[in-house]
Design goal:
alpha+beta; Rossmann fold; 36% strand
Length: 704
């Protein structure tokens, strides 16, 4: 015993010391590159037509089976023997039982890994952007404002030849709103290429200045501000076989939006949602792909707040007549089955929570797989739904966040929760059999960090408000702690999730411990994944309901015996910058300091597509615009407000901060300001460490 006891003591001391490692802000901000986030399987993807999956490890693609056994290894050195100029393992675009597809420089390469030969190599232009390949022999891409196709016969085809730079083909339109993420759409059998085109003649130029040149140079971007001229959208259809181009017969002089473009499986129809500029009505229309003529309106939706179709039609497998449509017309995003004639066949789900995405169909094509929040909006679960009858099976029961990709009859389930860093399983969607392929350890187990806790509060109208509280290490209930509230508060965002760290970035836990702070976040009404009524409360009066809910959070904090009620600060970015500055200026006796990053300060300076959906135009809603304008609340302000803005922000343009600063000067109010030169809307890379140091130093200095 005398020999064993000192050894046990040594192990205890080493364990205690290991748990007391200090996490620096640099490590926290750059946590992914520092290995401080849970292990992941790099390049994880299902192998088409099999139950296998592939990962990237040690300069190799490793194909594994359900039991995590290696089936095949594709080494970089084997690729390099056949692909000249390949310097590192590429990112896979596609993998099946015999080939992999990837891009290298200006080449689209299909490599047969069974016999180590290149089966296709399509060369396209060096300056190509927005590339999209099909499974035949072609890749679509853009150069500047025109669209091209390169094929396996080394032929390069110019689909458009616009000399007017205001005409832009093949790129995403509507500033990526309405779920738009790209501008080209191959038809199912690759006979056609449909594409978006926009005419920005009516859109004003907005000047951004590149400070890295000598002298500085002007970069004009097209930025449609609320109430002003917008883009005119078109849809082109190029026939690959006869090399002809038509445009759908759509009169868009009224600047309405075209979105949710889908092909019917037989390539006969193109389906398009046409949303009026007011965004309170849309028609879902079918067009003839050969002639461009409108065939029929399938259905219409209206709402006196807004409509926002974001998901394409999904046709049932091997079926030209029936498709699935996601709509929140009944208050939550649910699944509807329609015929190509426009008849509603069945409402397949009647969830009182939103479906988030459609993953695809099982092998037989009988069931569609979706992800949805379930009853707790902080979670994400997976469901199997019979595509004809609506029979529903919940595939995941463990509380938390399940992010998944579908491969045949298996789901690759990437799971985490507040207490689970990451587990990845293969789940058979027919019998529920699970195969664990990764159980990640807690990468922070040796660091001195405090706990993260969830709590639910209640809004004035009786709705649940989800909150997250991060406490410092060595938390002492007998002490008083200052608070930093981190806020976003706008649509299409959710901060509090039942996932690793509760959805919080790592810097929050580091800051809480280093400076003995409580970091608090509340998802107010207006936030995502709680249904249309919860989100659309902001209509025509941005900020009002959100600030009311944030103050409920403050009232709760002040009731806690361990909170210093006189030291509450707030920080947010983008919509969160609007919220942070508004919360401080409207409630100067509640908050001591705020840091507003990339803030919207006046909604008339924001873009047409997003801004008019939520606020209507400045001409239609002058009162709403006036009341939400941050500068309105500057009079007599004597607090501490730091504005931060990227100097070339193309999303929330610098004019937002500049006009607020000018108004502060006019009113004799002292504000603080910092700009990140030549950074856009977000500050990334190593400069982000500087940003977070700037933000947190300001909070610590002024939250007194």
């Amino acid at each position: 015993m005398k020999k064993i006891f000192p050894l046990l003591m040594l192990l205890l001391v080493l364990t205690v010391n290991a748990q007391q490692k200090e996490l620096t802000l640099n490590d926290a901000v750059l946590g992914f590159s520092k290995g401080l986030y849970p292990k992941y399987l790099s390049g994880l993807k299902g192998v088409e037509n099999t139950s296998n999956f592939v990962v990237s490890e040690n300069d190799s693609f490793i194909i594994k089976d359900l039991n995590n056994n290696v089936v095949k290894t594709i080494k970089l050195e084997d690729l390099q023997k056949s692909v000249e100029g390949l310097k590192s393992l590429p990112r896979l675009l596609q993998i099946n039982e015999s080939t992999i597809t990837f891009e290298m420089l200006s080449n689209l390469i299909v490599f047969n890994y069974e016999n180590n030969t290149v089966s296709k190599n399509i060369l396209y232009a060096d300056k190509a952007l927005n590339t999209e390949f099909n499974n035949a022999n072609a890749i679509a891409y853009t150069i500047d404002n025109n669209l091209y196709i390169a094929n396996n016969e080394a032929e390069k085809i110019a689909i458009t030849n616009h000399t007017d730079k205001n005409i832009v083909a093949g790129q995403a339109i509507a500033r990526y709103e309405f779920g738009i993420s790209k501008g080209t759409f191959w038809s199912p059998n690759n006979t056609y290429l449909a594409f978006y085109e926009k005419d920005e003649t009516n859109v004003t130029d907005y000047p951004l200045v590149d400070q890295t040149t000598y002298p500085a140079t002007l970069n004009n971007i097209k930025y449609p501000m609320a109430g002003q001229g917008s883009e005119l959208a078109k849809i082109g259809v190029y026939n690959v076989e006869n090399k002809s181009l038509i445009y759908l017969d759509i009169d868009n002089k009224d600047e309405h939006y075209l979105t949710n473009l889908s092909w019917s499986p037989n390539e006969k129809y193109i389906l398009v949602a046409e949303v009026n500029r007011a965004q309170d009505h849309f028609s879902y229309n079918a067009y003839d792909a050969k002639t461009g003529k409108k065939v029929r309106t399938l259905f219409e939706e209206s709402n006196n707040r807004w409509v926002e179709p974001e998901n394409d039609a999904i046709f049932l497998p091997n079926n030209n007549k029936k498709f699935l449509w996601l709509s929140e017309r009944d208050g939550f995003k649910n699944l509807f089955l329609y015929s190509i004639k426009g008849k509603l066949i069945k409402k397949l789900t009647n969830f009182k929570f939103p479906i988030k995405s459609i993953l695809g169909f099982d092998k037989k094509g009988e069931n569609v797989l979706v992800s949805a929040t379930g009853k707790d909006g902080r979670q994400t679960h997976l469901y199997k739904i019979n595509a004809l009858y609506g029979e529903i099976t919940k595939l995941t029961t463990r509380k938390g966040t399940h992010r998944a990709q579908l491969n045949g009859d298996y789901i690759i389930d990437n799971f985490s929760s507040l207490s689970t860093p990451r587990e990845i399983k293969l789940i058979n969607i027919n019998d529920g059999e699970e195969h664990l392929i990764l159980n990640a350890e807690n990468p922070l187990k040796e660091y001195k960090l405090g706990p993260t806790e969830f709590l639910t509060l209640t809004s004035r109208d009786g709705l649940n408000l989800h909150t997250r509280m991060i406490k410092p290490a060595n938390f002492d209930y007998s002490k008083k702690y200052p608070v930093l509230i981190y806020v976003y508060g706008g649509t299409h965002a959710q901060l509090v999730t039942d996932s690793w760290l509760g959805g919080a970035p790592l810097w929050m836990r580091q800051f809480a411990t280093e400076h003995n702070y409580i970091v608090f976040t509340l998802d107010n009404r207006g936030s995502e994944n709680r249904g249309f009524a919860f989100e659309s409360i902001i209509h025509r009066k941005a900020g009002d309901a959100g600030i009311e809910d944030q103050l409920i959070g403050v009232e709760y904090l002040k009731r806690l015996p361990y909170v210093d009620a006189n030291r509450i600060a707030v920080h947010g970015w983008s919509y969160g910058g609007f919220m942070a500055s508004s919360m401080l200026l409207r409630n100067p006796n509640v908050f001591t300091a705020a840091v507003a990053g990339g803030p919207v300060t006046d909604w008339k300076y924001y873009e047409v597509m997003y801004g008019e959906r939520y606020m209507d135009t400045p001409q239609e809603n002058p009162e709403g615009y006036a009341n939400s304008r941050v500068g309105k609340y500057l009079d007599g302000f004597k607090g501490n407000l730091l504005l931060i803005h990227g100097s070339v922000d193309p999303t929330v343009v610098p004019q937002h901060s500049m006009t607020l600063l000018k108004e502060a000067v006019d009113k004799g109010v002292q504000l603080d300001f910092f700009t990140y030169t030549n950074h856009p809307h977000n500050v990334r890379g190593k400069d982000r460490v500087h940003l977070m140091q700037k933000v947190l130093d300001y909070i610590v200095e002024h939250n007194r």
